C-alpha cells in the first residue's frame, strides 16, 4: 500500500500562524479581564438605602427608604378596554415589594417525616417580602371572621412563628394540621410534590381571601 502525504506550503504556514497570532491576542485579553473579575463582589446599589441587621448570624436586607408609588383609578384600566374592578380586595398602593423592616433570618423547620416538600414551600412563601409584610402586620386575623379552617390565618401564624421566634427550629404543625383542607389527596407522612403543594397552598390562600364573595 502507498500513503500519500499532503504537505502544506510555507506560505500557508505563515498565513495560518498569522491568523492564530491574531486570534490569540484578543482571546488572552478577554481571559485576563474575566480572571480579574473573578472574586469581585458587586457593590450595593446605595448604602443609604440598604439596611442590615448587625446581630449574630445572617440577616434579611431591606430598602426601607423606598416608598411605593400610589396607584390611581386610571392605572387599573388595561389597554384592551377592560374596565376597572367594582371592588378592590387589596389596594395596590399598600403592596410593598421590599421588606418594610429589617428581619433576622428566621428559624428552621423540623422534618416530621417526608415533610420536606411542605417545608421548602413554606420557606419560599415566608421569604416573599410582599406576603411576609402583610402577614407580619397581623391585618388579616384582625378582620377575619372565619370560624373554621382559614389558610390566611394559618399562614399568618406560621410566618410570624418563623420570623419572630427565638428558637433554632420549629415544627410546622399549624400547616400540617390543615393539610387535608389544603388538598384532599395530601397525606401526612407521604412523599408529595413541592410544586403541586405550592399551587394548592396559593389556591387555598386565594379562597380564604375571597371568602364571602360571590362568584
TrEMBL record:
GO biological process, one term: regulation of apoptotic process
Entry's Gene Ontology molecular function annotations: cysteine-type deubiquitinase activity
Segments of this protein annotated with the region Disordered: 1-54
USP domain sequence ranges: 107-215
Compositional bias ranges of the Low complexity kind: 1-14
InterPro entries: Papain-like_cys_pep_sf (IPR038765), Peptidase_C19 (IPR050164), Peptidase_C19_UCH (IPR001394), USP (IPR028889), USP_CS (IPR018200)
Annotated TM spans: none
GO cellular component, one term: nucleus
Pfam families: UCH
Protein name: USP domain-containing protein
Organism of derivation: Strix occidentalis caurina (northern spotted owl)
Amino acid at each position: 500500500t502507498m500513503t500519500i502525504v499532503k504537505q502544506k506550503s510555507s506560505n500557508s504556514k505563515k498565513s495560518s500562524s498569522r491568523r492564530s497570532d491574531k486570534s490569540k491576542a484578543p482571546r488572552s485579553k478577554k481571559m485576563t479581564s474575566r480572571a480579574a473579575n473573578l472574586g469581585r463582589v458587586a457593590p450595593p446599589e446605595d448604602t443609604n438605602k440598604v439596611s442590615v441587621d448587625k446581630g449574630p448570624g445572617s440577616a434579611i436586607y431591606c430598602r426601607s427608604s423606598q416608598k411605593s408609588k400610589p396607584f390611581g383609578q386610571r392605572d387599573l384600566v388595561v389597554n384592551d378596554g377592560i374596565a376597572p374592578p367594582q371592588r378592590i380586595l387589596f389596594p395596590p398602593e399598600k403592596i410593598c415589594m421590599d421588606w418594610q423592616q429589617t428581619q433576622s433570618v428566621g428559624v428552621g423547620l423540623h422534618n416530621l417525616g417526608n415533610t420536606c416538600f411542605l417545608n421548602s414551600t413554606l420557606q419560599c412563601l415566608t421569604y416573599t417580602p410582599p406576603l411576609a409584610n402583610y402577614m407580619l402586620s397581623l391585618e388579616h386575623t384582625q378582620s377575619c371572621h372565619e370560624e373554621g379552617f382559614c389558610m390566611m390565618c394559618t399562614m399568618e401564624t406560621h410566618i410570624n412563628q418563623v420570623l419572630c421566634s427565638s428558637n433554632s427550629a420549629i415544627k410546622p404543625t399549624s400547616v400540617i394540621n390543615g393539610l387535608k383542607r389544603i388538598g384532599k389527596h395530601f397525606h401526612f407522612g407521604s412523599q408529595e410534590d413541592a410544586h403541586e403543594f405550592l399551587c394548592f397552598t396559593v389556591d387555598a390562600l386565594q379562597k380564604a381571601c375571597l371568602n364571602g364573595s360571590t362568584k
